[in-house]
Amino acid sequence: MSVVCFTSLTLGYLPRARVLAETLRAAHPDWRLWAVLVDRVPPAFACRDAFAAFDTVLDAEDLGIARFRAWLFRHDLIEACTAVKGAALLHLQGLGIDKIVYLDPDIAVFHPLAALERRLDTASVVLTPHQVAPNHAAIAVSDNELSALRHGVYNLGFLAVRSDAVGRAFAAWWAERLYAACFDDPANGLFTDQKYADLVPALFDRVAIERDPGWNVASWNLSQRQLRFTHDGGITVNGAPLAFYHFTKHGGIGDTMTDRYAQGRHEPLELWHWYARRLAVHAEPNLADACWHYGQFSDGTPIPRAARLLYRERPDLMAYFDDPFDVRGESLRAWLINHAPHTLAAHTR
């Protein structure tokens, strides 16, 4: 296998991941596609059909992460899906795969990424910046450039790594950092995996910064990227082919940001609505009401974020409660009820 692409998801993101698979298959039928599932499939759900678009589905619990359940309890859903990426990269390198690409499940591919394959002939790591041109309007500077300073210069919805000595050293370093602290905590200099990437060009050789405007187009750079539909059905960005679009926070704040930076241009809005239609096609009715498996204690009670924060701030609790999800016997939840009831208040009133 020359190229493997992987994504990380929960079942709630399955429709998005199916769109990624559909579009990646069209552009690269020669690539292999893996899904790293940070969730558990309900017994009544037809797992084989659900993930038919993927060559391999890997349970995050099988990545060899030390004390997986204790470690995962420290993370909310987004943090958890991000935190496993380093271990997944190491796993794929351990299988002898030469070129590895990560794409977020809410990305769609619109043009072959042959240039990326060529990049990885000489580069060990490829990153894409959120911004590749200065903004000028005050609101765009605030939304885009200042946001990049808080959340990371590079968008880790995309990452490509070659399994040479440098690529392996990067993967080991990144996995170690994500194991220790992959948290949404900008006040302490962290935003899941992204802030670590700011250090990568300084710490490692052969790091390529891809500034092609057709890569990783999203609401955060629409202010400087002009989409156009061509007569043959293609899409260009500032004259270059649209390689892949990041439909971040579709159905939420992404709608607002796309409307703001489309600036009356119909192309971004048409693309946004196209994505909504593809999500509807790939919707999974059997999972409409499914909860994130790791979002609840073993009896189905939701886990408040306050409980996760206290657990990860207390090494003694992490050491003592090996499976903090389990409510049987001398459990973390029993300890919280007795010693920190405020962390459960939202669900125990």
What is the topological layout?
Elements: E1 3-9, H1 14-27, E2 32-37, H2 47-50, E3 56-59, H3 68-73, H4 77-83, H5 85-94, E4 99-103, E5 107-109, H6 114-119, E6 125-127, H7 138-151, E7 158-162, H8 165-180, E8 184-185, E9 190-191, H9 194-197, H10 200-203, E10 207-209, E11 227-229, E12 235-237, E13 240-241, E14 244-246, H11 253-262, H12 266-281, H13 305-313, H14 315-320, H15 332-339, H16 345-348
Parallel strand pairs: 1-2, 1-4, 2-3, 6-10
Antiparallel strand pairs: 4-7, 5-14, 6-7, 8-9, 11-12, 12-13
Helix pairs in contact: 1-12, 5-8, 11-12
Your description of this structure?
There is one protein chain. With 349 residues, this protein is α/β, with parallel strands linked by helices. The chain folds into 2 domains: 3-212, Spore Coat Polysaccharide Biosynthesis Protein SpsA, Chain A (Alpha-Beta Complex), CATH 3.90.550; 296-348, no CATH class. Helices cover 40% and strands 15% of the residues. The protein has 16 helices and 14 strands. It has helices at residues 14-27, 47-50, 68-73, 77-83, 85-94, 114-119, 138-151, 165-180, 194-197, 200-203, 253-262, 266-281, 305-313, 315-320, 332-339, 345-348, and strands at 3-9, 32-37, 56-59, 99-103, 107-109, 125-127, 158-162, 184-185, 190-191, 207-209, 227-229, 235-237, 240-241, 244-246. Strands 3-2-1-4-7-6-10 form a 7-stranded mixed β-sheet, with helices on both faces. A 3-stranded antiparallel β-sheet has the order 11-12-13, with no helix packed on it. Helix 1 packs across helix 12 and helix 5 packs antiparallel against helix 8 (165-180). The longest helix has 16 residues, at 165-180. The chain is globular, with a radius of gyration of 21 Å. The termini are far apart. 37% of the residues are buried. The mean pLDDT is 94.
